[in-house]
């Protein structure tokens, strides 16, 4: 973090700070509800295919500062490609909670009418997509940026993935191409220290992925501390640069994975849990704003109530939505005609 | 079905490969270039991207002359970064453009297969029909010129096996233009595979049918419609791409001996025109599949299954002339031992007729 960006963060108004807190509270409230519903009926042991929400579930508790800090700068028309852990980014980008929840529950009301699932969320109204394959969400973001520039808008594309993705070929190909063509793309790495069970120190040759940006001649910044305002400040610079046609940037945020890689992950490999679990960024930020007089206890309580109401509405809506018709399982393979 | 005198006469006359279209003749490469250029003129959202598609004009001349016409903003050379630029095409298509992306050899697709089968092919389905990916991914296929195991494969069965993308393979200039026009206009992702041996390239052994009449105006050859390129009554050859020409050569030769061969050009594997396959099988009762792709678990098995599922007793003969399950060898003597050559096809037809 440069002094300049720290000052930019300091210049946030109380209203902007409340906005960041509100966003993080909404995300956490949503994911707590998903956590609850996911485990509600998984059987006496743990059966991944059982319950109202079947399949793998990757929650982002602890990583909210990335979503809130970056997306605070994005417009509806900007693109965002996320990875397999996408809910925090989807919500911060402005995804309709009912559509998101419907898809997670595999209902007809979901974004993909139950054909995508929680790792495959596509919402063209907010130019949002995600990929369940590590690092492979980067390349399509280049195309979004290319199309926006071609159309003469000043929209930009942001692409987010974990630190494990920064060792994959698609990441490096994408950085090179984006830099070469000065595409309006922002690459965001969420470094939560763990690629499933493998610590970053065992997978990555450099202590910071931000330095890799230099290899492609673009700015790279690493943010320590999981601080939403620091993310906000770094994103402000990168977004301005991209909108001005000056090309891509890389932002790495040292963040925190409070839960397992997936729900059901016992984390037997994680040696740091007892000693250094890190600090949950939401209570930390709430306390900071309370101390600064930027928000009152009553206002925080109101944010929490409002988030709970929104989330419960979405969950109820999903539960009450019809399941997809099995006779239509082949529908949407193609736009035109069938494959047989 | 027994051959009538009338049918025998018909079998001696090869059907035209294309409708009457004046006197202008193009090779397949030029027909392709014309389709792309014409669609680019009409639709500003169409652009071409890939390795050596600009000044070089495409390694197999798929884009020759387009850079001069449309400039580097729309005919775009890329780094050798297949995941990045194919993914770029996907993102651009999702945002409303119509990219034509070339990756020069199908053999190279392994380095970026994720973008193709997990992203390009699946986004429409995963989104419940809310997101379209109208892009064309084109590439060269096929062997016969000693380019070895990593530059000679057909592999169309691989792409046809993976749901969500259409797979189109022309055999001649007329179809090449009409199928490319339809592919660019399609709202679905299309993998468009042209065989180097049908392009009419100056530096490669030329097939006589790689140059043919091509109308100047735009037209579409619909995706998913096979074509009976030669009518016959004794045996059916179901095939595609360069093998269509080998099969026609054999059919013409054997016609002099009174053997009547019907040749079906599939033109696309996805969609597959099962109706026309069943029709030719019903007509002759004897089917040979000629396929330059690997034999096991591929197109030839699919054709057999299609016919058997329609009627297990329809055929009195079924055989395959395919690439055996081996990497494609380099030495000419070895390569031509495994390719579906006219010699192998002729032997198969004689065996079928005698059976």
UniProtKB/TrEMBL annotation, chain A:
Sorted alphabetically, the keyword list is: Oxidoreductase, Pyruvate, Thiamine pyrophosphate
Q: What class of enzyme is it?
A: oxidoreductase
Q: Which GO terms describe its molecular function?
A: pyruvate dehydrogenase (acetyl-transferring) activity
This protein is called Pyruvate dehydrogenase E1 component alpha subunit
User: What phylogenetic lineage does the species belong to?
Assistant: Bacteria, Bacillati, Actinomycetota, Actinomycetes, Micrococcales
- SUPFAM superfamilies attached here? Thiamin diphosphate-binding fold (THDP-binding)
Q: Which InterPro entries match?
A: DH_E1, PDH_E1_Alpha_Subunit, THDP-binding
Provide the E.C. number(s) assigned to this enzyme: 1.2.4.1
| Cofactor(s) for this UniProt protein | thiamine diphosphate
Q: Which residues form the Dehydrogenase E1 component domain?
A: 50-326
From TrEMBL, chain B:
Bias (Polar residues): 1-12
Listed Pfam families: Transket_pyr (PF02779), Transketolase_C (PF02780)
Cofactor(s) the protein needs: thiamine diphosphate
Q: Which keywords has UniProt assigned to this entry?
A: Oxidoreductase, Pyruvate, Thiamine pyrophosphate
* EC nos: 1.2.4.1
SMART domains per record: Transket_pyr
Q: Name one GO molecular function term.
A: pyruvate dehydrogenase (acetyl-transferring) activity
InterPro entries associated with the record: THDP-binding, Transketo_C/PFOR_II, Transketolase-like_Pyr-bd, Transketolase_C
Transketolase-like pyrimidine-binding domain location: 26-201
Annotated region (Disordered) at: 1-20
Q: Which Gene3D superfamilies match?
A: 3.40.50.920, 3.40.50.970
Q: Which NCBIfam families does the UniProt record give?
A: PRK09212.1
Name of this chain's protein: Pyruvate dehydrogenase E1 component beta subunit
